Amino acid sequence: MITEFGHFALWLALAAAVVQSVVPLWGARNGSAAGMRVADSAAQIQFLAVGVAFAALVRAYVVSDFSLETVALNSHSTKPMLYKVTGVWANHEGSMLLWVMMLALFGMLISLFGRMIPVAMRATVLAVQAIIGVGFYLFILLTSNPFVRVANPPLDGRGMNPLLQDPGVAFHPPLLYLGYVGFSTAFAFALAALITGRVDPAWARWMRPWVLIAWSGLTAGIALGSWWAYYELGWGGFWFWDPVENASFMPWLIGTALLHSAIVVEKRNALLHWTILLAILTFSLSLIGTFLVRSGILSSVHAFANDPERGIFILGLLCLYIGAALTLFAWRAGDLREGGVFAFWSRESGLLVNNVLLSTASGVVFVGTLYPLVLELVTGDKITVGAPYFNQTFLPIFGLTMLAAGIGPFLSWKRARPAVVLRRAALTTAISAALTAGLAVGVGLGEPVGLLGAFIALWLAVATLQDLGHRAGLPNVNARVAVRRVFGLPRSAWGLYIGHTGLSIAAAGVVAVSVWKAEEIRTVSPGTALDVGPYAFTLTETRNETGPNYQTTIATIEVSRDGTPIATLHPERRWYPVEGRPTTEAGIRSLWHGDLYAVLGDPDGAGRNVVRYYYNPGVPWMWLGGVMIALAGLISLTDRRLRIGAPSRRRVSTAQPAE
Amino acid sequence: MLFWSLIAATSLLAGLWLARPFLRGGHVDMDASDGAMSVYRDQIEELERDHAAGLISAEERDQARQEIERRALVAARRMDGGLSVSRRSPAIAASLAALAALTALGGYALTGVPTEPDRPLASRRAETLERMAAAGDVNSRIALLIDKTSANPTSFEDWWTLAQSYSAIGNHSASVDAYRKAVELSGDRPAVLSAYAEAMTLANGNKVPDAARLAFEQVLNRGPDVRARYYIALAKAQAQDFDAALEDWTALVRDSQPDAPWMPLVRRDIVNMVRFLNADVTEYLPDASPQEIASAGGALVPAESASQIADLERSLADDPHDYKGWIELATLRAGNGENEAAANALAEARSSYAGAPFVLQKIDEAARRLGLDLLPPAVEPAGPSQADIEAAADMSEGERDDMIEGMVAGLAAKLEDAPNNPDGWIMLVRSYAVMGQDEKARDAISRAEAHFADSTPVLERLRAEAATVLTE
């Protein structure tokens, strides 16, 4: 009964979404405040209903109700409880339900915390969101219904891919969807701007918190996915330029551009067209990502062609939404008047350059991701576009982006003084070049590519600190005043400094591990020491144990440096009998400068094991940087001017006399 | 009905909540808020802050301030936007609520199965076991009985049925334990004691242990019991006292109706025993059939069986994983009086199927049928022990492959007998694929698909397995 009630609730959510997509627009056209306000109540009912549906599905997984087909195919009675719950979104049907639930969640949050947004704008935004929702509810209910029952439920389920039975990846999809789906708000605000003809600083400010939440979620989701790949797949790699990864990376790149572009709208009432276009593109790329991951086209173009129901449906939605949005843009963009003008040397220009670079980078990734698919569809040839393509195209563009991100804050709004900017940039260059030279000579790092990367990362860090110092008034004020000023900076400035520093730290980590990683793969018997960089890894023993739903072989590996013990690693090789699959669990010890990383491979039957040992310098910096970037978004979100739901009316009355 | 009322009520409530704005009148909303103004105000505040911090000059500040104020003016002019007023409209509210409710209910009617209850696993164990036990699945019956006996350990009936069920699936050591309980609860009832002693014998590889022999004798002391008489004779035969055994069995035949159910077994043992002793079968079985006379004398038509034996030996040399072939060979050889050769055939079959308990059980049954288990122990080939299986690690690659093939063939044979085992089929498909026998793997898949034709989850598993292990 609970299950069927959940199924019904999903239809109820669709019904609410239908009302939400029609009545508010009618209300906005006809000046009916009640009609517009229906958007709020519908958004609340929609979220409540889809939440009930989701809860019913979670319960079915928790109690192992194998009369639901998706539970029977994706769960198992012996699975640990955590993975029974996270198994809900580890499959197509459940993850689509999570997708629409996120969409409804954003709708409800806008209806509750967006009270300062004028009702016509809010109604239009919520209606656009609901139109997206209607398409996806229909997609779920008609092609991917998680509540399909089986007449003769099996006694046990088929289990869940053991690679996904991991805390890291368990929370990766919800964060990723927070990003993907969160960008639907930007899309909805952009369309609402085109429909109502209202784009101004206030519009950018209303949109900003939602974009920040989505962007932070996406950042954290990508970092979590990368972290999981790093410790679970057992190759010491963290990013594979895999289409699934690219599908999340493209909206991040464009979303980053959007985030910066929206600042210009808010501060200077300029770059309106750009911002609206970026908002549309960001969510379009999220939709394309959803299509790539959910249509099955990636696993095999043929499988997609043979069982096209789901893929065609999403493709249809994709074309409909993106096509309609771009058409609306083409039709209405001409009516929007750009506001502030700006000189070539200005913050606006800097942010524009940043937008162009990020968009180009995203385009490069887009081509590399979709070209093989298109080629296979058209000619049947299978090709793989791998790391070399992306390294040669994406990295130079992203390097330039980072250089620009360093200079950007030096530029003042509207009209900057080139001489001042160039003088400060020259100082940045000198300091970073000196530090890079120090690395080359002092530490003895050789690779030119690595040194170039190090220079760029240092450049961004130095420039960011330099700007922070400047904002604090250094070197003209004393230390106490400077500290006071630093702490008095608005939260959005903190977002800038933490975000840019985080990017610099993460980039340094990526450069370090890509260029200076040390690895050793060998078949060893217990007691054999292998040198990996400056470290000696020794396999001392392997023992067999049994986990809740797997058997495992755990190795003990002692790591020492110059005879001093540093760490003991315990990599595992697990076997999941239900699913009939092995997994590896890397043994990792993070030091401040890098990771000691060991993977246990197959035994050779003669008491020896294949082992893979790595010293991965910089990897901890990548995670630190990722956390800082995601955090930067959240810190900006707490900026006073974005405090959503704050009663603005009262501020008017108290603030006005002061001016 | 209850369910439909519940969801109808829910849809109605939801519909009313949706339409709520049309039920509350008198609200006035400004079309544009002071949002834009507050942005400009913040910008001016920030200018002042920057100026105070010395980041911009007074001149820059004034310029910027003028520009912001200019834009604020423009924005203020556009803020003429009218007011919109909410008017109460119960009609619109009602139609909205109805529309929403009907969409939800109609959609659900389209795809839902309102009659289908929740089926959490915890509530399904007994139900499923009962269903399968009713369909004749002994393992489910056993699981049910285990539940029953642990809930109520003093029920003789349950232990008795459990013991019999264990016997039926050949799990004799478990059946011994259950019978022991039954014996205790029955107060040493002879029929129960007799069954217990038989289970002990079967668990001991059909060798009557001393304890069982004592039990059988105790049973006989308290009254006639065919089973006890049979096994005591068997015990004598196993103690190499063939004459006494033959005498007891003959007496048993004499005392029994010709159509008694145990007669074929007893007569078979007499015939086998006569064959070993090279005696005359009619002396013990005056009504011996021609076939029995032939078996006892090893007098099958030699030419025919010789060619059959040769054929079988050839095909078994090619493919030793044909336990039915081995058993047939042993039967033919035993029929020819070549008891040791017959025992050897079964020994070879055992070594090919080490690690496949199901087949080993079949081979044991054949040995018993042919009386080969009565031969002196020297000829009795050792069954595969845990040690043998562990020793597989030390085998050469060829030997190990043989053993694995044996296990796989055993699994195939078992599934033929009891096909209701999805995991077994999947393991079989995987094993064939690993051994490179794609043809056999495909064959196994199609047989499994035929068996599970109406069970989608199992079919999906099978197909997924096929897709991962089989290359097109």
UniProtKB/TrEMBL annotation, chain A:
Q: Which residues form the Cytochrome c-type biogenesis protein CcmF C-terminal domain?
A: 315-640
Claim: Transport is one of the keywords in the record? no
What Pfam family is a match for this entry? CcmF_C
Described purpose of this protein according to its UniProt entry: Required for the biogenesis of c-type cytochromes. Possible subunit of a heme lyase.
Every Cytochrome c assembly protein domain range:
89-295
Q: Which InterPro entries does this UniProt record tie to the protein?
A: CcmF_C, Cyt_c_assembly, Cyt_c_biogenesis, Cyt_c_biogenesis_CcmF
Q: Which residues cross the membrane?
A: 6-26, 47-64, 96-114, 126-148, 177-197, 209-229, 249-265, 272-292, 312-331, 352-374, 394-413, 425-443, 449-465, 494-516, 621-638
Topology in the lipid bilayer is annotated as:
Multi-pass membrane protein
Keywords (alphabetical) are: Cell inner membrane, Cell membrane, Cytochrome c-type biogenesis, Membrane, Transmembrane, Transmembrane helix
Indicate the family of this protein: Belongs to the CcmF/CycK/Ccl1/NrfE/CcsA family.
- Give the CC-aspect GO terms: plasma membrane
- Primary subcellular site in the record, as a coarse category: membrane
Which sequence ranges form a coiled-coil region, renumbered to this chain? Answer: none
A molecular function annotated in GO for this UniProt entry is:
heme binding
Q: Where in the cell is it found?
A: Cell inner membrane
Q: Which GO terms describe its biological process?
A: cytochrome complex assembly
> Under which name does UniProt file this protein?
Cytochrome c-type biogenesis protein CcmF
UniProtKB/TrEMBL annotation, chain B:
Q: Which GO terms describe its biological process?
A: cytochrome complex assembly
Pfam families assigned to the protein according to its UniProt record, in alphabetical order: TPR_CcmH_CycH
Query: InterPro entries recorded for this chain?
Result: C-type_cytochrome_biogenesis, Cyt_c_biogenesis_CcmI, TPR-like_helical_dom_sf, TPR_CcmH_CycH, TPR_rpt
Instruction: Give every Cytochrome c-type biogenesis protein H TPR domain span.
Output: 150-258
Q: Where in the cell is it found?
A: Cell envelope
Tell me the ranges holding the TPR repeats. Answer: 156-189
The protein's UniProt keywords, in alphabetical order, are: Cytochrome c-type biogenesis, Repeat, TPR repeat
Q: Which GO terms describe its cellular component?
A: cell envelope; plasma membrane
Alphabetical list of Gene3D superfamilies matching this protein? Tetratricopeptide repeat domain
Source domain of life is: Bacteria
Q: What is this protein called?
A: Cytochrome c-type biogenesis protein CcmH
